[in-house]
């Protein structure tokens, strides 16, 4: 497995990371034994970056990872954790808390659930509108000095917030959605990260399965959070699946699956970008790993650029109520 450096201050990680969210939350029931088998298969394949959040399944995802690592250890492994999102017993969202005291509290619980003595990359899940980012990053910097975390990351924030955070302590990477149909970071945020030497861990590289080649109209009744996503609704879905038809044609020419080409495209946008794949089954993981063998020529990249210009997707990437609270969406249209 090739490695990529997360920015100038971050660790070297596998060229693809595993996003573990779907093993615990948001995509309906998951099979515990298959989830652990998938985690083990990822480690065996050379994946060294596991991404989670303390609110995925209200701690379930961290405990699952802890169980999977109990028999494997964590040598040469980086664990990335998002914190700060608040949920109630009904699993509803109730805001964010990134106060310094909350940072240390969330961290203590994550260390316990993961059964580790440090977390490699720690990041607020979203910008807390009531807490200056400088205070949050300052608290994380204190935790670096204490040895509880190794690097500081950010998630879904805009350029101004990135600059303010980086002025307090070097930021290893920004985690943000980036795919063929979610290219908003190209207008400003990506440039800022590259100017400051901050890496990108890209989630949503398959747009929640929409451009994987496995989605179809008869799955619109899926009982998970995608039923609230504008890109999976009504005529938006029809338009987006038409884009996937173009992707499938290009993939057929390459001799790969649509998912593999979509992942390879993100990876081809720069050595400072690490795609996160949300596989929760071994067969999907195997397919995703196949993207590492896909070589996109200039002609392939030109064909993909023509098929997926910025703004090609129908519908926003999140419901409007969520976009209104996302710092990364300020002054952005994609």
Automatic annotation (TrEMBL):
<dbReference type="InterPro" id="IPR036812">
    <property type="entry name" value="NAD(P)_OxRdtase_dom_sf"/>
</dbReference>
<dbReference type="InterPro" id="IPR050791">
    <property type="entry name" value="Aldo-Keto_reductase"/>
</dbReference>
<keyword id="KW-0560">Oxidoreductase</keyword>
<feature type="domain" description="NADP-dependent oxidoreductase">
    <location>
        <begin position="15"/>
        <end position="306"/>
    </location>
</feature>
<dbReference type="GO" id="GO:0016491">
    <property type="term" value="F:oxidoreductase activity"/>
</dbReference>
<dbReference type="Pfam" id="PF00248">
    <property type="entry name" value="Aldo_ket_red"/>
</dbReference>
<dbReference type="InterPro" id="IPR023210">
    <property type="entry name" value="NADP_OxRdtase_dom"/>
</dbReference>
<dbReference type="GO" id="GO:0005737">
    <property type="term" value="C:cytoplasm"/>
</dbReference>
<protein>
    <recommendedName>
        <fullName>NADP-dependent oxidoreductase domain-containing protein</fullName>
    </recommendedName>
</protein>
């Amino acid at each position: 497995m090739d490695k990529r450096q997360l920015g100038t201050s971050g660790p070297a990680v596998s060229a693809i990371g595993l996003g573990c969210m779907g093993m615990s939350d948001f995509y309906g029931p998951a099979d515990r034994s298959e989830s652990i088998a998938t985690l083990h298969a990822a480690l065996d394949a050379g994946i060294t970056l596991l991404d989670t959040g303390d609110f995925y399944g209200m701690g379930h995802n961290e405990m699952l990872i802890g169980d999977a690592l109990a028999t494997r250890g964590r040598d040469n492994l980086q664990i990335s954790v998002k914190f700060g999102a608040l949920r109630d017993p009904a699993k509803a969202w109730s805001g964010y808390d990134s106060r310094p005291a909350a940072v240390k509290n969330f961290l203590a619980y994550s260390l316990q659930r993961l059964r580790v003595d440090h977390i490699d990359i720690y990041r607020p899940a979203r910008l807390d509108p009531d807490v200056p980012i400088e205070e949050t990053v300052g608290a994380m910097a204190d935790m670096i000095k204490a040895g509880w975390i190794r690097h500081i990351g950010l998630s879904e924030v805009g350029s101004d917030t990135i600059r303010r955070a980086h002025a307090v302590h070097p930021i290893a990477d920004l985690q943000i959605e980036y795919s063929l149909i979610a290219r908003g970071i190209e207008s400003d945020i990506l440039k800022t990260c590259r100017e400051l030497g901050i890496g990108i861990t890209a989630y949503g590289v398959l747009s929640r399965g929409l451009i994987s080649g496995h989605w179809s109209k008869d799955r619109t009744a899926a009982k998970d959070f995608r039923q609230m996503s504008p890109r999976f609704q009504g005529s938006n879905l029809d338009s987006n699946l038409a884009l996937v038809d173009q992707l499938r044609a290009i993939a057929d020419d390459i001799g790969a699956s649509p998912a593999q080409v979509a992942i390879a495209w993100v990876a081809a946008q720069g050595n400072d970008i690490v795609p996160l794949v949300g596989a929760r089954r071994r067969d999907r993981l195997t397919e995703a790993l196949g993207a590492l063998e896909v070589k996109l020529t200039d002609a392939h990249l030109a064909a993909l650029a023509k098929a997926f210009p910025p703004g090609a997707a129908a519908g926003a990437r999140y419901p409007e109520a969520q976009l209104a609270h996302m710092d990364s969406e300020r002054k952005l249209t994609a």
